[in-house]
Design brief:
Length: about 525
């Protein structure tokens, strides 16, 4: 089994989970489920980022220690992911001992190699980003430029602070050529193309050394050779990916999984992942990630969700109405994975009703109903081997092609094309008319094809709507779950055993009123 690994960013615990976090996590989950179905050995990682000034401040505002606060909020992420059927293989917290070991080992390695040096840093710092900015990057805030600062953070619109610290610096400037060579040799290593160009442009402008330690706070991983300092959150956070794969504890395991296949990230943290991180890895003698894939933002009313704008939506609120399948399906089908996409409740209801309640739900209920009514609830041996056979093969091809490019909308679009074709085929062949005419063999053959399509739909849609797919699988009388199957063998046409006991049941996706 080829190893395949995918990660989400680790989420800051100063905030509770919102649908922006869920977006990346669902995408990673669907990819992980797809690769398991395809026969890979998968490692899917998510987790929480728990150090840093922002965290310490959030805890203090609640009258809690950072440890207590981190425990509580990290748990909220775990709960949210459970509710959304996220199938992560590990959940890492940066406050775990295994992570301290990994951070210290990697830092020491880079320090010993001569790429970390002591210096003084003075700069403009955004606490929300945990990052320094240069003056040119700042923007005016809603109320103009805040007094006492030269501008506001381009991501959060909040005033930056002037900070002066003795820091250790990572000599990023030495890595400009090596990074360009790497991206030249591996054009697929940053996707989509627009993001790759952005990264190349940034590297070509010239890279500045960046600070990797702080003395102003103690909530972090101590620098092993100088414990007055703690590691700067980003240097600490990025290493999580290696920690979870065994870095610092199990070299063999690490080498089995590393380099990672996909880091999925939002465009806001692309630079950290596609510039700083590969350079750090090179400095530590490790390979850079195979691919950093940056997606756009989910916008609410045209704006990025944020605590200050009070426009955050909790995934759980949507699950109550749409079910976890409905939420998962919506985010990956309603917008392309790459550009920004606007979220609206109305669009969500419309897509749920059209694709899940109508197309998917109707196909399942009418085929199972007819099979119970006309065939006594037993899968027939007969098949027409009509047009649906070819269309099923096309659905698998389309899904595979989509998933290779992380084009979820296109990939699952191919599966929904098959659903539409099957609904059209039923209209065309009108099994109720064949039944009336007493042509039992034709009814069985037509429904035989339709039941086979239901099996394939349950299989192919299982990465995106695992609950409904599993239930459909069960109603088809099939043993196990779609997750136990392996492609391409499981997609072979005609695999629904004759004699399977079929069951109709309540609507898989009850229609919603707008
Ligand atoms: N802790 C860092 C990441 C460290 S990774 C080594 C961080 N955390 S975060 O909680 O702010 O989460 C950022 C990620 O959440 C984004 O990169 C993106 O993947 C996801 N999203 C947060 N808001 C989002 C939207 N509004 N839309 C889409 N994704 C969003 O940065």
């Amino acid at each position: 089994m080829p190893p395949f690994s995918v990660t989400t960013p680790i989420y800051y615990v100063n905030d509770v989970p919102h649908i922006g976090h869920a977006y990346t996590t669902i995408a990673a989950d669907v990819l992980a489920r797809w690769r398991r179905l395809s026969g890979d050995e998968v490692f899917f990682l998510t987790g929480t980022d728990e150090h840093g000034l922002k965290m310490a401040q959030a805890a203090e505002a609640q009258g809690l220690t950072p440890e207590d606060w981190a425990d509580r909020t990290s748990e909220r992420f775990r709960e949210a992911w459970k509710e959304l059927r996220i199938s992560n293989d590990d959940f890492i917290r940066t406050t775990e001992p295994r992570h301290y070991r990994a951070v210290q080992e990697m830092l020491q390695k880079v320090y010993d190699g001569g790429d970390i040096e002591l210096g003084t840093y003075e700069g403009l710092y955004c606490v929300a980003c945990e990052a320094y900015y240069v003056e040119d990057e700042l923007v005016p805030g809603d109320a103009g430029v805040s007094p006492g600062t030269p501008g506001n953070c381009p991501i959060h619109g909040r005033p930056v602070q002037r900070m002066r610290e003795e820091n250790y610096f990572f000599k990023l400037s030495r890595y400009q050529d090596r990074l360009l060579e790497h991206y030249d040799a591996h054009p697929e290593a940053v996707q989509p193309e627009t993001r790759r160009n952005e990264v190349l442009g940034f590297i070509r402008q010239g890279l500045q050394d960046f600070s990797i330690s702080r003395t102003s706070i103690s909530w972090g991983v101590p620098i092993p050779w100088d414990p007055r300092h703690v590691a700067y959150v980003w240097f600490d956070a990025l290493i999580n990916y290696c920690t979870a794969m065994g870095y610092g504890s199990d070299r063999e395991r690490f080498e089995h999984w590393w380099p990672v296949d996909y880091h999925l990230v939002g465009k806001d943290i692309l630079r950290f992942h596609a510039v700083y991180w590969p350079a750090m890895l090179m400095a530590a003698g490790e390979a850079p990630p195979k691919c950093v894939f940056a997606h756009g933002w989910l916008l609410v009313g045209g704006e990025k969700m944020s605590k200050t704008r009070l426009n955050q939506i909790a995934p759980g609120d949507l699950v109550t109405t749409f079910g976890s399948d409905g939420v998962r399906y919506h985010f990956l089908r309603d917008q392309n994975f790459g550009p920004d996409g606007d979220f609206s409740y109305e669009a969500m209801v419309a897509r749920y009703n059209a694709d899940l309640a109508n197309n998917f739900g109707n196909l399942a209920s009418r085929v199972l109903n007819m099979a119970v009514n006309y065939l006594g609830g037993v899968a027939p041996a007969e098949r027409e081997d009509g047009p649906l056979r070819e269309q099923s093969a096309a659905a698998l091809d389309g899904l595979s092609a989509g998933m290779t490019k992380l084009d979820f909308a296109g990939g699952f679009g191919a599966v929904w094309e098959l659903i539409r074709s099957a609904n059209a085929y039923i209209e065309d062949r009108a099994p109720w008319a064949l039944q009336k005419a007493g042509d039992g063999a034709a009814v069985a053959a037509v429904l035989g094809d339709c039941l086979e399509v239901l099996r394939l739909v349950a299989l192919l849609a299982s990465p995106i709507i695992p609950d409904a797919a599993g239930e459909l699988w069960r109603r088809l009388g099939l043993p196990g779950t779609p997750e136990d199957q392996r492609l391409p063998a499981a997609a072979a046409w005609g695999s629904l055993p004759a004699g399977s006991a079929l069951e109709r049941g309540p609507a898989l996706f009850p229609r919603l009123e707008g």
